[in-house]
TrEMBL record:
Its EC number is 1.1.3.46. Keywords: Flavoprotein, FMN, Oxidoreductase. The keyword Metal-binding does not apply. Residues 1-342 form the FMN hydroxy acid dehydrogenase domain. The lineage of its organism: Bacteria, Bacillati, Actinomycetota, Actinomycetes, Streptosporangiales. The active site is at 238 (proton acceptor). InterPro entries: Aldolase_TIM, Alpha-hydoxy_acid_DH_FMN, FMN-dep_DH, FMN_HAD, FMN_hydac_DH_AS. Its cofactor is FMN. FMN binds at residues 74-76, 103, 125, 153, 214, 236, 269-273, 292-293. It comes from Nonomuraea soli. This is 4-hydroxymandelate oxidase. Glyoxylate binds at residues 21, 127, 162, 238, 241. It comes from the Bacteria. SUPFAM superfamilies: FMN-linked oxidoreductases.
Length: 342
C-alpha cells in the first residue's frame, strides 16, 4: 500500500476536520507542494558493475543506532488517528529499529509512550515555553522517560496560518496534550517570538541530552546553531505548515550541509515519500531524513501494523535504490548520484 492509498483509507476512517489538520498547510500550500516536487525533479544517476554485495542501511546518530537513516518526525495528536496513538507509533518504531521523535504535543505522555514500547529509541521534541520553569519540568519528564535527544523546534514563533484546516481548533473530549499536564490541569502550548539563540544555553543547562535544532532553512542560521552548541540540525519547513513560499528543504540542503561542514549531523524533513528520496537527500548532504505525514496516514489506515509497514517499506525501497545505484552502503552515496534540474 502506498502512502497515498493510506491517506485515502485515513480519509474514509477519520473525522474530516482531523484529516484536514494532518494534511494542512500554510497559505496557498506552495511550500507544501514544493517539498515533494523538488524531490521529483531530481534525477538519480546510477553506477553499474560495482561488484557490491549485501548492503547494510544501519547507522548511528548522536549515539543512537538506527536500522536506516529514516526517522519518525515529530507530529502532534496521534490519537486522532488511532486509539493507541503514540503508543502504537512507538511500538512500530521499535519493531523496525527506527528512531521516533515524539512531539511535545503528543496525546500520550512521554513516560507512557516509553513504557508502551520498551525497545524504542525516543527523542523528544520541544516548543520552548515562556515559563522556563515549566519548560524545565517538561524536559525533565522527557529525560526521565529515557529520551536520547532533545529536538527544539524553532520555526514556530507563532502558529502557522492555516486557512484550510477547516475548523479544527480543540481536541475531542478526552484527548489532551499529555506532556503539558500541570497539577490537575493541562496548560495550552504557547508559541512565542521572544526566544533567541541565548535560550540554547539555558536548555543546555537543563539537560544532558544532545540538543538538535529543527526548522533551519539558511546556512548562516545553521552555522549559528553550531556556534551556539547545537548537536544536530534538522533542515525543515515544518512540512509547509508555517511560512508559505519558503523553499523546499532539499533545495536548501546542499548550502546548509556545506556551512555545517560535518561539525554535527544534518537531518532533513519535508516531502520524503520514497526510498529514492532518501538517497537523494543523503547524496545532497543529509545524514538522515525524517517523515511526517506518511506515518500519520499509516497509523490511521492500519494502526501499529500500518506504521510498521510504512517504515519497513521505506527501508526496503532505500535498499533497493542503493543496490540499483551500485552502492555497497550509505558511505557510497555522494553528490554524483544526483543530477539537479538545469
Ligand atoms: C499533523 C502534523 C503535526 C505536526 N506536529 C509537529 C509538532 O508537534 N512539532 C514539530 O516540531 N513539528 C510538527 N510537525 C512537522 C513535522 O515534524 C515535519 O516537519 C513535517 O511533517 C515533515 O513534512 P512531511 O509531512 O512532508 O514529511 C507536524 C506535521 C504534521 C503534518
Ligand atoms: C496549538 C498546539 C499546536 C501543536 C503543534 C502542532 C504542530 O506543530 C503542527 O504543525 O500542527
Amino acid at each position: 500500500m502506498s502512502w497515498s492509498a493510506d491517506r485515502a483509507e485515513a480519509e474514509a476512517r477519520m473525522d474530516p476536520a482531523h484529516v484536514a489538520y494532518y494534511a494542512g498547510w500554510a497559505g496557498d500550500g506552495i511550500t507544501l507542494r514544493a517539498n515533494e516536487e523538488a524531490f521529483r525533479r531530481l534525477r538519480l544517476l546510477p553506477r553499474v558493475l560495482r561488484g557490491a554485495g549485501k548492503l547494510d542501511t544501519g547507522m548511528t546518530l548522536l549515539g543512537c543506532p538506527t536500522a536506516a537513516p529514516v526517522l519518525v518526525a515529530p507530529t502532534a495528536f496521534h490519537r486522532l488517528a488511532d486509539p493507541e496513538g503514540e503508543r502504537a507509533t512507538a511500538r512500530a518504531a521499535a519493531a523496525t529499529g527506527t528512531i521516533m521523535i515524539v512531539s511535545m504535543a503528543s496525546t500520550v505522555g512521554i513516560g507512557d509512550v516509553a513504557a508502551a514500547a520498551p525497545g524504542a529509541t525516543l527523542w523528544f521534541q520541544l516548543y520552548i515555553q515562556p515559563d522556563l520553569g515549566f519548560t524545565r519540568s517538561i524536559v525533565g519528564r522527557a529525560e526521565a522517560a529515557g529520551c536520547r535527544a532533545l529536538v527544539v523546534t524553532v520555526d514556530a514563533p507563532v502558529r502557522g496560518r492555516r486557512d484550510d484546516d477547516r475548523g479544527f481548533t480543540d481536541l475531542p473530549e478526552g484527548l489532551h496534550c499529555e506532556n503539558l499536564r500541570d497539577g490537575d490541569g493541562v496548560r495550552p502550548i504557547v508559541m512565542s517570538p521572544a526566544f533567541g539563540w541565548e535560550h540554547l544555553a539555558l536548555l543546555r543547562e537543563m539537560t544532558t541530552m544532545p540538543i538538535v535544532i529543527k526548522g533551519v532553512l539558511r546556512p548562516d542560521d545553521a552555522r549559528l546553531a553550531v556556534d551556539h552548541g547545537a548537536d544536530g540540525i534538522v533542515v525543515s519547513n515544518h512540512g509547509g505548515r508555517q511560512l508559505d513560499t519558503v523553499p523546499a528543504t532539499v533545495e536548501v540542503l546542499p548550502g546548509i550541509a556545506q556551512a555545517v561542514g560535518g561539525a554535527v549531523p544534518v537531518l532533513l524533513d519535508g516531502g520524503v515519500r520514497r526510498g529514492t528520496d532518501v538517497v537523494k537527500a543523503l547524496a545532497l548532504g543529509a545524514d538522515a531524513v525524517a517523515v511526517g505525514r506518511p506515518v500519520l496516514w499509516g497509523l490511521a489506515a492500519g494502526g501499529e501494523p500500518g506504521v510498521t509497514r510504512v517504515l519497513s517499506t521505506l527501508r526496503d525501497e532505500l535498499e533497493y535504490a542503493l543496490t540499483m545505484c551500485g552502492c555497497a552502503g550509505l558511505d557510497d552515496i555522494g553528490p554524483d548520484l544526483v543530477r539537479r534540474p538545469c
